[in-house]
Specification:
The chain is an alpha/beta fold. It has ten helices and 14 strands. It has helices at 60-67, 109-119, 124-137, 153-165, 183-198, 210-216, 234-238, 259-263, 280-289, 304-326; strands at 15-26, 32-44, 49-53, 75-80, 83-84, 94-97, 171-175, 202-207, 219-224, 227-232, 244-251, 265-267, 270-275, 292-300. The strands form three sheets. The protein has a six-stranded mixed beta sheet, with helices on both faces. It has a four-stranded antiparallel beta sheet with strand order 2-1-4-5.
């Protein structure tokens, strides 16, 4: 696992997690203990967008609920903006979107946000302005007078996002913020996250949608089986070494066989060939001699999804081996 920097010249992280663990009783008479999070240590730097990745049941939501003090750790500690998570005043500067938000659904979106705004001490005029601004930000300005019970799941998700950022928090914690959203809604949420980053806010969000993480995150942390398996920029996580090269080309009339053609796959009038990087120049010379039209030459690199799935597969294999040995 990649280790975090201990550079003392760096500013205080927005979120610091140290050896955080959570166990639950389970089994007959709750005599056994099941660990859902094991000695998690992680930092989220001020002003960055940090993606928390993992399959269902990996420990993402457990970690976030521990940070929000909705549940309590078995051991370890955490700080947000330099304050212990046990300090209630810390929550004044934190916005939180739960994985499955639920509200009293006979309220309208405007009424709900006004209700939350009162918790933050905003005066009536300020509340109206803030509520209108948040509804516009999440794309619900035209639906503000409709009761929540008539909202779709995606609209409810956007309402929950609006309440999370209503009080202009310095740190925003989002548990699966893209859940239930159509492609347009996901794009709107991505735009909001990027806007929060431009404003200098810190965003921690959990997701299993890896394309969103690659697009949005400065860094990601991958958690599998309750253990942190890696932390770093998405490109750093998978490494920068190319796995090979891919050439896309067309043949202009010639059908004479040559070595590269045997390795290529044809789609319509185009051919696609994958080869080791060391063979690239020889292949280009072959194509030139054959009169081929080269459309593109690209490096083949592992994706974050491949890195993620390799960790998941390794964890499952280890769990299966433990189960077999136990029998």
């Amino acid at each position: 696992m990649r280790r975090l920097s201990n550079n003392r010249n760096m500013p205080t992280p927005a979120i610091e997690i140290e050896n955080l663990s959570k166990e639950y009783p389970h089994g007959f008479l709750h005599l056994k203990r099941k660990r859902s999070l094991e000695n998690l240590s992680m930092q989220v730097q001020t002003g960055e967008v940090f993606g928390f990745l993992g399959p269902n049941g990996a420990g993402k939501s457990t970690t976030i609920k521990l940070l929000m003090r909705l549940i309590f750790p078995t051991s370890g500690t955490a700080r947000i903006l330099g304050k212990s998570i046990e300090d209630v005043s810390m929550h004044q500067q934190v916005g939180y979107l739960p994985e499955q938000p639920y509200f009293y659904d006979y309220l309208t979106a405007a009424e709900l946000l006004n209700y939350f705004a009162r918790f933050h001490g905003l005066k009536a005029a300020d509340r109206r302005e803030r509520v209108q601004r948040m509804l516009k930000k999440v794309g619900l300005e035209t639906a503000k007078k409709i009761q929540l019970r008539k909202y779709s799941k995606g609209m409810l998700q956007r309402t929950a996002f609006a309440q999370a950022i209503l009080h202009d928090p310095q740190v925003v914690v989002l548990d699966e913020p893209m859940s239930g959203l159509d492609p347009l809604g996901r794009r709107e949420v991505r735009d909001i996250i990027l806007e929060l980053k431009k404003e200098g806010r810190t965003v921690l969000f959990s997701t299993h949608i890896l394309s969103d993480a690659e697009m949005l995150c400065d860094r990601v942390g991958v958690i599998v089986g309750g253990k942190l398996r890696g932390v770093g920029a998405p490109g750093e996580m998978v490494g920068i070494q190319a796995q090979g090269m891919e050439i896309l080309f067309e043949l202009n009339g010639t059908r004479n066989a040559f070595p590269l053609l045997d390795k290529a796959t044809k789609t319509g009038e185009r051919y696609r060939a994958q080869l080791p990087e060391a063979d690239l120049y020889e292949a280009l010379a072959e194509l030139k001699a054959a009169g081929a039209r080269i459309l593109s030459v690209t490096q083949l690199k592992p994706t974050l999804e491949e890195f993620f799935m390799n960790l998941v597969d390794a964890d499952r294999a280890q769990a299966n081996a433990v189960e077999v040995n136990a029998q």
